[in-house]
Write a structure and sequence with these properties.
CATH topology: CNF1/YfiH-like putative cysteine hydrolases
Structural class: alpha+beta
Radius of gyration: 17 Å
Largest sheet: 6 strands, mixed
Distance between the termini: 20 Å
Number of domains: 1
């Protein structure tokens, strides 16, 4: 049965590439209930494992890959990248925040709930990549590391297309003095992404803008964003920050995935 059309978003920049399949899955079209409703793909959530498995099975069906071929990582907000050559079991997930592959039929699935999911493709080179870019990962080099890993497998930087999926927007992302101090120290020249705060000593951080700037600086073939805010669209997206503000005990995870057609 086809997945509910509300259950995914696609990016024109990736849809136009031959041999590339992708989806930025929303929270709709699954079987989970309550605060996890409904297409929760988070292996680390407190949702029932059977629900998560069924939701991920539906994602695999939409992408046209085998049910065990949606690969996920144990994400730790790092710049670490792994090369994926086969499906991974839950117990074998490496601690990393990006992955690349040249194996058809393997879907690289990044889990997010405010952080930036970035899908990469070099269609001519037969390579795809996916990265989880929260502020820590974007600051410490996960974007550049992903591009470098693709190049080592044979990608050409100028051919790589990247798309940033649903991410928390600046209006919803307040940061405090410690964040501001670290950002000034480690990202000189990017202070423009720290907007005026609503409280003294605080700022509104433009995470999507920062990610797009790092992608542009990397000199790839093209980088775009879906311009969708996870926090402000509760009916479409999970949001860690919204869950925190509501005092809820857990939250679902969105899956953004890309693969080479088998």
């Amino acid at each position: 049965m086809p997945l509910d059309p509300r259950a995914f978003l696609e990016a024109p920049a990736l849809s136009a590439l031959p041999g590339i399949r992708h989806a930025f899955f929303t929270r709709q079209g699954g079987v989970s209930e309550g605060i996890h409703a409904s297409l929760n793909g988070g292996l680390g959530s407190n949702d029932g494992p059977a629900n998560v498995s069924e939701n991920r099975r539906r994602m695999c069906g939409h992408l046209g890959v085998a049910e065990d071929s949606l690969v996920s990582l144990y994400q730790v907000h790092s710049p670490e990248v792994v090369v994926v050559e086969a499906p991974l079991s839950l117990a074998d997930r490496p601690k990393a925040d990006a992955m690349v592959t040249r194996v058809p039929g393997l879907a690289l699935g990044i889990a997010t709930a405010d952080c930036g999911p970035i899908l990469f493709a070099d269609a001519a080179g037969g390579l795809v990549g996916a990265a989880h870019a929260g502020w820590k990962g974007a600051l410490t080099g996960v974007i550049e590391a992903t591009i470098g890993a693709m190049e080592r497998l044979g990608a050409a930087r100028g051919r790589i297309v990247a798309v940033l999926g649903p991410t928390i927007a600046q209006a919803a992302y307040e940061v405090g003095p410690d964040f501001i101090a670290r950002f000034h120290a480690e990202a000189p020249g990017f202070e423009r992404f720290l907007g005026s705060g609503r409280r003294p000593g605080y700022a509104q951080f433009d995470l999507p803008g920062f990610i797009l700037a790092r992608l542009a600086e990397a000199g790839i073939g093209g980088a775009t964003a879906l311009d969708r805010c996870t926090y402000s669209e509760p009916e479409r997206f999970y949001s860690y920050r919204r869950t925190t503000h509501r005092g809820e005990p857990d939250y679902g995870r969105l899956i953004s995935a890309v693969c080479l057609a088998g």
